[in-house]
Design a protein that fits this description.
The chain has 66 residues and is an all-alpha fold. The chain contains 3 helices and no strands.
């Protein structure tokens, strides 16, 4: 059994209250991980091409308000 499988089995044993607490914790944990990844990608220049493309489309008038 893998670590993930063991964790899954433990989560299946949670009471509804424990599951709600876990969901809140995991949502925060996942959001923090996502933020860290975006920050790292931005700092390393991985998003530069996307930003340049968006700015070029904006300057060319290829945008619409949402």
């Amino acid at each position: 059994m893998t670590t993930v499988e063991a964790i899954e089995k433990e989560i299946e044993k949670f009471s509804p209250k424990e599951l709600a607490e876990f969901r809140r914790w995991y949502a925060d944990f996942d959001a923090d991980a996502w933020d860290a990844q975006i920050e790292a990608d931005a700092a390393s220049g991985k998003l530069d091409a996307l930003a340049e493309e968006a700015l070029a489309e904006y300057k060319a008038g290829k945008v619409r308000e949402i």
